[in-house]
Design goal:
354 residues, alpha/beta, Aspartate Aminotransferase, domain 2, 7-stranded mixed sheet, 3-stranded antiparallel sheet, 12 strands, globular, binds pyridoxal-5'-phosphate, PyrdxlP-dep_Trfase, aminotransferase, EC 2.6.1.9, transferase, Aminotrans_II_pyridoxalP_BS
Length: 354
């Protein structure tokens, strides 16, 4: 491609590739970790009532009410909350706000693949620390000083969880660097690091309403941290786009956080289906990592990852395969409804017979 008019900053940039959103046919969609259940009816109601003549007005640039609601939910103050258009945006602003060129940022080699993209975009030095052979987290290697650390917990795409005691060790090893904990999947069975926030001023946790609150289409995410640290993210945001969340997203986000009962029920169903699917796939000879997320990471000794992905696609099931060293024989499978997972298991069985 002719890149004559592209800034020198982006000549070698490789953007993030999101999972496929098919338009041509109906698939059982287990490739992007969306929630199989709809958002709370109260969320839909809130969006409907926010869709009125006030849309001609800009939204609240500070997202004050949403931040108040999130703060109450977590037992924090609104100054400890920062909201953005999905946690991807929040992560991007955080990378810019906390990490400096020339000071190496560390994260695992197998983790959310957006982290190296942000690091490249912002011209940061970074090191991808290899996970252990069994994909457990090499805590010792995160105790060395660095310009910052990012930990996805539970990790994607492995689903494995790091206990809070280990996160404390990483925070304590170097109190002068920010440690970001991406908790996109923490609602599906991991212990959240939010309880550590008032003890560690260098901790930032990042959250999304896309997964456990069924709002991927709405784009709402947030970060939590000390007021001083959140002020840094606000400074970056207001230098880039001062009105990040629109009126409908603000209304939806608030209603979603408030409806605790619906949230509990929906995540309970996802976790129960995950356990049933894990058992079923192990019976079929799959190796399945124990997961605390709304997906499982699976491999089978008799079929390669790419082959299995294609076989599932031919049978109407979309899952995620990563063309990456060490995990080429693995698939990441989002947890759908019981029926969808049953269909996925049957398709696997069919492929294994062939
Ligand atoms: C899905 C995901 C996100 C981003 O979610 P948004 O939809 O942008 O809020 C962030 N981190 C991880 C690890 C994810 O899997």
């Amino acid at each position: 491609m002719d890149k004559r008019f592209w800034s020198s900053r982006i000549q070698d940039l490789e953007p993030y590739i999101p999972g496929e959103q098919p338009k041509d046919r109906v698939f059982i969609k287990l490739n992007t970790n969306e929630n199989p259940y709809p958002p709370s009816p109260k969320v839909l109601e809130a969006i409907r009532s926010a869709a009125d003549e006030t849309l001609r007005l800009y939204p609240d640039p500070e997202a004050s009410q949403l931040r108040q609601t999130i703060a109450e939910y977590h037992g924090l103050t609104p100054e400890q909350v920062f909201c953005g258009n999905g946690s991807d945006e929040v992560l991007g602003l955080c990378f810019y706000a906390f990490f400096s060129p020339g000071r190496r940022v560390i994260f695992p080699d197998i983790t959310y693949s957006f982290y190296p993209v942000y690091a490249h975009l912002f011209q940061l030095d970074f090191e991808e620390i290899p996970l252990n052979e069994d994909f457990s987290f090499p805590v010792e290697k995160f105790l060395r000083g660095s310009g910052g650390a990012v930990v996805c917990n539970p990790n994607a795409p492995t689903g494995r969880t790091l206990p809070l005691e280990e996160i404390c060790r990483i925070l304590e090893a170097d109190p002068n660097r920010v440690v970001m904990v991406d908790e996109a999947y923490a609602d599906f069975g991991a212990r959240s690091a939010v309880e550590l926030l008032n003890r560690y001023p260098n901790l930032v946790t990042v959250h999304t309403l896309s997964k456990s609150r069924s709002l991927a289409g709405m784009r709402v995410g947030y970060a939590l941290g000390s007021p001083e640290v959140m002020a840094a993210v606000r400074c970056v945001k207001n230098s880039f786009n001062s009105y990040p969340l629109d009126r409908l997203a603000l209304a939806a986000g608030e209603a979603a956080i408030r409806d605790v009962e619906y949230f509990e029920e929906s995540r309970r169903k996802v976790m129960a289906t995950r356990e049933r699917t894990t058992a079923r796939l192990r019976e079929l000879g799959f190796f399945v990592h124990d997961s605390n997320a709304n997906f499982i990471f699976i491999t089978h000794p008799a079929v390669g990852g790419k082959e299995l992905q294609q076989g599932l696609r031919d049978r109407g099931v979309l899952v995620r395969w990563f063309d990456k060293p060490r995990i080429r024989d693995y698939l990441r499978v989002s947890i759908g409804t019981d029926q969808e997972m049953e269909a996925m298991c049957r398709a696997c069985q069919d492929i294994l017979k062939g």
